[in-house]
Amino acid sequence: MPKVIMICGKLCSGKSTYAEMLRKANNAVILSVDEITQALFGQDAGEKHDEYVARTKEYLYKKSLEIIDSNADVILDWGFWTKEERVRARSFYDLNRIPNEFHYIDIDDSEWHKRIEKRNQDTIAHKRDAYFVDEGLAAKFESIFEKPDPSEIDRLIK
Question: What is the distance of C-alpha 90 from the center of its chain?
Fold first, then answer.
């Protein structure tokens, strides 16, 4: 039976890189909120960004059911920053009787800041399509992120 792997971690923690590794190893499909919102709006979503993200997640939950029904694993690459969001996701798949796992990428603050800087350099140099993370955005995401407790996580990645 196909499963859903949900990747939890801070912005710039390596979730997308990890998701790609899992995709290759499991012949899975990655569903990424950032990929869709970046393709549609680039850096220009402005005040509507959070609304677009919420709507994209709802669409991807539905799309994940189609993919699971087609007998492929699904990898959700979108952070799951709050406990409420993790509980909702787990409940959604449990109610649909779909095996699911949370993988948490845990990095220390020093490494996190290095990765933000690298991402920003790559974004400026047009080496990758990603959101530029200024100090305000980093602070916003840091204030939102709720580190999962061990009972929420099926696999810890350091």
Answer: 14
Q: Which two tokens stand for residue 122?
A: 């790559």
For Cα atoms 124, 42, 17, give the angle at the middle one, nearest 5 degrees.
70
- The tens digit of pLDDT for each residue in 118-146 reads 877 877 787 766 666 667 676 777 788 99
Q: What is the pLDDT of residue 52?
A: 87
Q: How many domains does the chain have?
A: 1
Cβ atoms of residues 158 and 106 within 8 Å: yes
The answer to whether residues 83 and 15 touch, using CB atoms and an 8 Å cutoff, is no
Domain at 136, CATH number: 3.40.50.300
Give residues with Cβ within 8 angstroms of 50, minimum separation 6. none
Helix (H) and strand (E) counts for the chain? 6, 5
- Report which secondary-structure segment, H or E, holds 29: strand 29-32
